[in-house]
Amino acid sequence: MRVLVAGAVLSLFLAPVALQLTEAPAGFDNKSNGLVDDATHQADQEKFDETENVKDGRGPLYNAQACRECHQNPTSGGASQVTELRVGHRGPDGRFQNPDIPIARGTEIISGRSLVNDRAICPNAAF
pTM to 2 decimals? Predict the structure, then answer.
């Protein structure tokens, strides 16, 4: 009997909560989440989606043409489905050492970096 009474009392408290729940959106609308106004969000998204090149100041080892190249899942600005490839080895002293990475068909060497740029925009950055 106590269990029935406790269940009835609990259902009285939970009923208003169930009525207040709103359904989750079915998809993304590319609107601001409220942190900034919609105009600022739109301007920032356009900059994020803008295609970059070496003349724009993007270094030749940048991994793609725009931020949205990697951050597009499920929509522009979202999480990235791309992972970084970092390499290195343990040196004689037991500490991590960055590799020497050849570029430009082996005519140039990049030292002191662990990131391998598999989507570089500069042709010389190709392995």
Answer: 0.46
User: pLDDT of 67-80, one tens digit each?
Assistant: 877 787 777 877 77
User: DSSP assignment of 79-95, as one string?
Assistant: B-S---EE--EE-TTSS
Which residues, at least 6 apart from 52, have a Cβ–Cβ distance to it below 8 Å? Answer: 58, 62, 65, 66, 121
CB 54 within 8 A of CB 121: yes
Quote the CA–CA distance of 45 and 35 in Å, as a whole number: 14
Coil, helix or strand for 123?
helix
Provide the residue ranges of all domains of the chain, joining segments of one domain with +.
38-116
Q: Convert the pLDDT of each residue in 28-79 to its tens digit.
A: 777 888 889 999 999 998 988 888 777 776 655 566 777 877 787 777 877 7
